[in-house]
């Protein structure tokens, strides 16, 4: 079934001329109707992403394809090689947030979050083939610290913003990745 879906993604890519709004063969996703939210919230074009670079998402994520492509670059170039054969290899990302019409850290009066535009995804854990997990909450300051810090720093570049436990109290249990552009280059904490 995976091969069929990947083949369909390739056929869609070819049919559309490989434009910026289509997934790569390493992204299993379905294009969906634009998400219209109140105010400036919304995702257009919107995609429901289920798997990236052979790694399942724990829940389908509604995001822009640019966000999925950044996730693919990070998985291929950093996460999959960093995990290596540990536990049989990386098979799933525990997604705790994707599209959500809200402000930053859900604070009243704060600026709109990148989640509100489909530009962000939050990951709290990494699941291996044998079922073992590495969680940001439990691993950042323990035996999994080296791996998690490598995963965090390797996201800086594919993503414009990378936040983790050292950023603030809101990110103690997950990594926040978004594709926002910052004048001075990626913002990573």
Q: Your description of this structure?
A:
With 189 residues, this protein is an alpha+beta fold. It has one domain (2-188). The protein is 25% helix and 29% strand. It contains four helices and eleven strands. The strands form two sheets. Strands 1, 4, 5, 6, 7, 8, 9, 10 and 11 form a nine-stranded mixed beta sheet that branches. The chain has a two-stranded antiparallel ribbon with strand order 2-3. Strand 4 and strand 5 (55-63) form a beta hairpin. The longest helix has 19 residues, at 65-83. The radius of gyration is 16 Å and the shape is globular. The protein starts with a helix and ends with a strand. The model is unreliable at 1-20 (pLDDT under 50).
Helix-strand blueprint:
Elements (H helix, E strand, L loop, with lengths): L1 H14 L11 E6 L2 E2 L5 E2 L2 E7 L2 E9 L1 H19 L6 E8 L22 E9 L4 E3 H4 L5 H11 L5 E3 L11 E4 L8 E2 L1
Parallel strand pairs: 5-6, 9-11
Antiparallel strand pairs: 1-4, 2-3, 4-5, 6-7, 7-8, 7-10, 9-10
The helicity comes to: 25-40%
Could you tell me the mean pLDDT?
90
Tell me the strand percentage band. Answer: 25-35%
Q: Give the domain tally.
A: 1
Task: Compute the CA-based radius of gyration.
Answer: 16 Å
The SSE order reads: HEEEEEHEEEHHEEE
User: Tally of extended strands?
Assistant: 11
- Helical segment count: 4
């Amino acid at each position: 079934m995976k091969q069929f879906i990947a083949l369909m993604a390739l056929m869609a890519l070819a049919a559309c001329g490989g434009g910026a709004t289509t997934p790569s063969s390493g992204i299993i996703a379905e294009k969906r109707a634009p998400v219209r939210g109140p105010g400036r919230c919304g995702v257009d074009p919107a995609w429901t992403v289920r798997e990236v670079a052979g790694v399942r998402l724990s829940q389908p994520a509604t995001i822009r394809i640019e966000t999925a492509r950044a996730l693919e670059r990070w998985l291929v170039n950093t996460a999959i090689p960093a995990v290596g054969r540990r536990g049989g290899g990386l098979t799933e990302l525990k997604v705790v947030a994707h599209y959500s019409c809200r402000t930053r850290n859900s604070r009243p009066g704060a600026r709109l979050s990148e989640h509100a535009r489909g530009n962000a995804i939050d990951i709290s854990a990494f699941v291996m083939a044998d079922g073992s997990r590495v969680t940001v909450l439990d691993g950042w300051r323990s035996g999994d610290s080296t791996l998690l810090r490598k995963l965090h720093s390797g996201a800086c570049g594919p993503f414009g913003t990378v936040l983790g436990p050292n950023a603030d109290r809101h990110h103690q249990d997950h990594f926040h990745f978004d594709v926002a552009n910052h004048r001075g280059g990626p913002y990573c904490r």
